[in-house]
Amino acid sequence: MPRNISVRINDKNNNSLNALDTLYRIGQILAAGIPQKQALAEVLDTLENELGMNRGSVTLLSSDDSEIMTEVAHGLSEHEKQNVRYQMGEGITGQVVQTGKPIIVPKVSEEPQFLDRSKRIKDIDREISFICVPIAIGKKVIGAISVDKIFMEDAPLEDDMRLLSIVASMIAHDAKSRRDASSQRQLLEDENLRLRHELEDRFHPENIIGNSNAMREVYRSIQQVAGSDTTVLIRGESGTGKELVAHAIHYTSPRKNAAFIKVNCAALSENLLESELFGHEKGAFTGAIQSRKGRIEEAGAGTLFLDEIGDFSPTIQVKLLRVLQEREFERVGSNKTLKSKARIVVATNRDLEKAVEHNNFRQDLYYRINVFPIFLPPLRERKDDILLLADFFVERYSRQMNKDVRRISTPAINMMVSYHWPGNVRELENCIERAVLLSTDSVIHGHHLPPTLQTSDATDTVGAGSLKERVALFERDIIVDALKRCNGNLAASARDLGTTTRIIGYKVKELDIDHKRYRLKR
């Protein structure tokens, strides 16, 4: 065998072994489970170090398939990679991604389609060959891998292209595995979120309205504490529904078949409160003509709810502390010790920390009741729930008053959402009761709500004063409500109100109503 043929055979064998060794290393890199960008960068390093494939880059389609973006590239900074992008069919890379077919450019200086977006080839003195192959998952091309090689007349570029195609298929398989894992992880996260919401809905107290994040946190707290005997402190402004939370804790607890006893501590004087809580014996004080059980005793093994505990006198505080710590007490006028099995839930709208600081509330009692606090947010911090609550009260009072009130007008909704609700849910309930009473056309309008809510900012209306202004206010309310129902369509609104489009158009202009704002956005 001639020596030159023997040398070529040996070179070919060595190249084949080197290529197999390179593919083996690339397989190990992709199987290592490292982040995708790091893995692709190491693949390009291996191609350069082992096979002389320089300045490699991997481009991938964007999530919306609108652009081909550079994922990794040798010699480019992160900022430079952000600028190297291609449209579908643009340049060699764009053509490869669009057609799904590899392209070999023997001499980039003779190829007008070669764009050199990275600005690296122009600085090299020697002629460069360029190879680009698609990365595809099945028939779907997701990107491309490209490399440069120093130009040689007899260079086996077809062999390099086939080797690079194998690497591209390995990258595609890795990308598919990562996408499948990501998709599966997302499915599990969605399922986990769905199950969590199902659990929250399952433990959602039927007597409380609200789906805001703040209220979901309250529901979770109720579910966590209901099954125990832990003392609960419910805190929140007046009218936020503290008693409803106490009911929810009781009726989702093992004590739900026992008594639920409520004591409003702010409504009673010190002597009456002591007798109310602990009971009294006959003759213990003037008017005590017979013995009487106290609320603690009546609660038995149920739940005792002490509302407004911040109003307790120092004497009552001491006696309550004993009930909490020792589970025992005496009736007024008796020296017989009684045992308490009741679970105690307390509530207050006062700043207990400040009361402790000013010696108006015992520190030891504060620590004893503050075992598991539940904070009820004011209505102004859960505006997502305003409409839910309003609809609930509309249904309740419509049924009570035997009236057919079906909905709330848009201006009235705007008023309620804009208002700061110092009286919280209780104030909202009173407003809806008044509005249902005043409604005459099955709709709650803005003028049915109390004057405290009727500001120009909240109602999106002009101020009301004279008869003319009040009529304009009423007309505006009716027209805006019709526009809302008809998605801003003047002709449909005119038909809805039984008038002409010309009149509605005139009124819209006269009352300065922007009817376009009520159109559905598509």
- The stretches of 5 or more residues where confidence is low (pLDDT under 50) are 1-10, 456-464
Query: Helix/strand/pairing class, anyone?
Result: alpha/beta
What would you call the shape?
elongated
Kindly state the number of beta strands: 17
Largest sheet: 6 strands, antiparallel
Strand content: 5-15%
Q: How many domains make up the coordinates?
A: 3
Mean pLDDT: 82
* CATH homology superfamily name of the largest domain: GAF domain
- Widest β-sheet, arrangement of strands: 3-2-1-6-5-4
Q: In angstroms, what separates the terminal alpha carbons?
A: 78 Å
CATH class of the largest domain: Alpha Beta
CATH arch. level architecture of the largest domain? 2-Layer Sandwich
Task: Please give the count of helices.
Answer: 19
Q: Which bin fits the share of residues in helices?
A: 40-55%
Supply Rg: 39 Å
CATH topology assignment of the largest domain: Beta-Lactamase
